[in-house]
């Protein structure tokens, strides 16, 4: 069964409309081809210099048949698919002021240069909290062999549309690049037939789950509960934000326009949330010595990273081994990230990793 959820026929009750679409999903019309140079560009943008992302002769790249993508590589592609679904679900809401609160990433197998990826995004749940709509979206990413490679759960908050929201959206439309109008769609204009999308009901294509490669980095016997990872401090400047916006396709003006950031109540421009997650992922995999041994990575975005025009910003990452499981050979790392004395991730930021066995 297919359910047409279009902007041309908004529901009279937006909450009921969204509730009725729980379980429905949107599949990207075309696959995404993972390019070797795109992997290198993205790895540089998130300051992840593990050779598996840059050198095809690296042992991990050779074993996998190509450069490995960094852990957050597919997040921009997933965000685009989420926007498509939200345009059909979030009737009466303002997407230009969407707030992402939680992100959970699960990694089933490495993404390799040459893979052809497809996103399948579904509305997992819908609630109303303090006058805002709270949605949880599930995004399953599969490759050309119908293997599940990546699953993401994103918790989003949306506010109702109003006169202020329309002013903000109109300002944003005047700033974003001409082909990025999906950030703030102009609802006064009709949607072209070429962009119409149908969301399908609960049936989903079956995917294959295969075992990940055996970890070959840090060994289980090398790690102990309570062990602290070496701290790492990373500097971000405005150029880094502009570069990430170009590489990822996320041109939201809160990341480069002081005027727009001030308009929506921010002190100044802020770093992309997924950029900060990407920096944290590189911090963990550098300690692991294995870019493909992370099983799950979850954060709650607690505070934005303000990036001053001249001073930029610094983020300090730290981690502690919270638990070890000898039966599965896994460890859970509690990660802390701070900028300007404030936690940017909540207290429950955690990474589950596979450790090599003797």
UniProtKB/TrEMBL annotation:
Residues 231-319 form the MaoC-like domain. InterPro entries: FAS1-like_DH_region, HotDog_dom_sf, MaoC-like_dom. Pfam families: FAS1_DH_region (PF13452), MaoC_dehydratas (PF01575). It comes from the Bacteria. Residues 20-151 form the FAS1-like dehydratase domain. Belongs to the enoyl-CoA hydratase/isomerase family. This is Fused (3R)-hydroxyacyl-ACP dehydratase subunits HadA/HadB.
């Amino acid at each position: 069964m297919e359910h047409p959820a279009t902007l041309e026929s908004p529901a009279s009750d937006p909450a009921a409309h969204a509730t009725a679409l729980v379980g429905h999903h949107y599949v990207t019309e075309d696959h995404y081809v993972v390019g070797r140079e795109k992997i290198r560009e993205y790895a540089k943008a998130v300051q992840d210099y593990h050779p598996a992302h840059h050198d095809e002769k690296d042992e991990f790249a050779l074993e996998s048949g190509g450069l490995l993508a960094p852990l957050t590589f597919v997040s921009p592609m997933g965000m685009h698919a989420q926007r498509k679904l939200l345009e059909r679900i979030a009737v009466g809401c303002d997407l230009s002021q969407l707030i992402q609160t939680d992100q959970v990433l699960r990694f089933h197998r490495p993404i390799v240069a040459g893979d052809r990826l497809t996103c399948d995004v579904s509305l997992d749940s819908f609630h109303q909290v303090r006058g805002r709509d709270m949605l949880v979206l599930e995004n399953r990413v599969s490759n050309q062999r119908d293997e599940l490679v990546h699953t993401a759960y994103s918790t989003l908050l949306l506010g109702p549309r109003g006169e202020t929201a329309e002013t903000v959206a109109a300002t944003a439309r005047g700033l974003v690049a001409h082909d990025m109008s999906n950030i703030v769609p102009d609802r006064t204009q009709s949607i072209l037939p070429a962009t119409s999308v149908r969301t399908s009901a609960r049936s989903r294509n079956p995917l294959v789950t295969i075992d990940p490669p055996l970890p070959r980095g840090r060994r289980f016997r090398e790690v102990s509960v309570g062990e602290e990872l070496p701290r790492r401090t990373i500097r971000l400047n405005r150029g880094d934000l502009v570069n990430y916006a170009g590489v990822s396709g996320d041109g939201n003006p809160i990341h480069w326009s002081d005027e727009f950031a001030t308009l929506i109540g921010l002190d100044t421009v802020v770093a992309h949330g997924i950029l900060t997650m990407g920096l944290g992922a590189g911090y963990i995999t550098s300690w692991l010595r294995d870019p493909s041994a992370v099983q799950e990575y979850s954060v709650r975005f607690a505070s934005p990273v303000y990036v001053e025009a001249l001073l930029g910003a610094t983020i300090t990452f730290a981690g502690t081994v919270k638990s070890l499981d000898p039966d599965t050979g896994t460890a859970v790392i509690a990660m802390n990230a701070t900028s300007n004395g404030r936690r940017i991730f909540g207290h429950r930021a955690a990474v589950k990793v596979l450790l090599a066995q003797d």
